[in-house]
Amino acid sequence: MSDDPIPSIDAVIDDVAREMTSTPARADFVERVEMRIASAAAPRRAIWTRPALLAPLAAACVLVVAVLLARHRTPPAEQLRIPAPSVAAAPTIARRAEERPAARVPTVVPVQTARVPRVATSPLPKIEIAPLDVERLDVAPMVQAQQLEIEIDPIAIARIEIPPMP
Amino acid sequence: MSISRVEDAALVARAREGDHAAFSALVERHHPAVHRAALSAVGSTTDADDVAQEAFLLAYQRLRSFRGEASFKTWLLTITWNQAMNHRRRSGRWWHRFVSVDDSPAEPFDAIPFASGATPEELASAGELRNDIRQVIATLPRKLRDALLLAQSGEYSYGEIGAMLNAPIGTIKWRVSEARKQVRQLLEARGHGAGAQRKAGLRER
Lengths: 166, 205
Hints:
The structure holds two protein chains of two kinds.
Chain A: H1 9-20, H2 29-41, H3 51-71, H4 77-80, H5 89-99
Chain B: H1 8-16, H2 20-42, H3 45-61, H4 72-90, H5 120-138, H6 142-152, H7 158-165, H8 169-189, H9 194-199
Helix pairs in contact in B: 1-2, 2-3, 2-4, 3-4, 4-7, 5-8, 6-8, 7-8
C-alpha cells in the first residue's frame, strides 16, 4: 500500500485481494506433511500379498476350476444307454401320419431323427467282425466294340398338294 | 550451522539423500507461500490445506527430477499450482467460498484503510465498498483473478507468478492491470463511482 494517507480505489482493491489469500495454514500443517511423507516413504506391502485382495481372488479361482470340472465330467451310465432312435423312429412317425385324416396328411412326410448325444469320450465295447466268405468272381475282359459304319438313305418327302383357299 | 541459514539447494541435496529433516526444513520455510498459492486457486482454507499437502508430498516424491534450472521455490509453486488446478477441475464449488457476504461477519473497521479522521459514515461506506470489491474480484475471469490475487499476496515475484500460470511476465502484469480496471468498472456499475469513493474516504485516482 502507498504511504498516501488517502488511499486510492486501486490500493483498496489490492488490499482486499491480499486479504482474500491471507488466511494462514493450520498450525499443525508441517507435522501433517511430515506424517504423510513418512507414511508414503514406508515400504509398502506388495498389493498381491494383501489378504483382502487374495481371499476373493482365490475363491473366484476355485469357483472357475469347479465349473470347468463339472462341464468336462464324463456323463453318467444312463445317458450312454439311450438307444439310438435314428432308424426306428422314422416308421413310427410315418405311421402316425397315415392314421390322421387324409386331408391333413402332408404330401411329404417328414422323417424326424432324434438327436443322438455325442459321447466321444465314453469307451465303447470293441466289435469283432468275422471275415465274410465271398466267392471269386471272374470277370471277362471287356470286348472292344467294332467300328460300325451306318449308312443313312436320303429322306424322301412326298409332295403335298395344297388346294388354294376359297 | 543453523538449518535456517542453509540454502534451498543444499537442503534439497540432503533431502535427496534421504535426510527427512532437510525436507522438513524446506516445508517449514515454504509452506506459507505454498498455502497462499493454493488458497488463491481454490478459495477455501480446508481445500488449500489439502492441496498444499499434496504438493509437498509430490515434491518429495519427485525431488530427484528437480534439476535446479529454476529455484526450488518456483519449482514447488509450479507443482502447487498444478495440484490446485486439478483440485479445481475435480470440484465445481471452488470459488464460491470467497463470496460469503450474507453469512460472513462484517469487516472489522480497523482493518479498512481510510483517511485519518474519517466519519462513521465514511467507515460504513468503506466497509460496504470492501465487501463489494471482494464479490467483484470473485466474478472476474479466472486468468485475471488468479494474476491479481497472486500478485497482491506480496508473496511472489512476477517471475514466480509467470512460472505458476505458465505465462510471460509482461502478460502477468497486463492481467493484473486489466483485473484492477475491470474491478473499478464493475464497482462503478454497483454504484461505487467517484462520489461514493469520496464518501468512503478515498481519493480519486
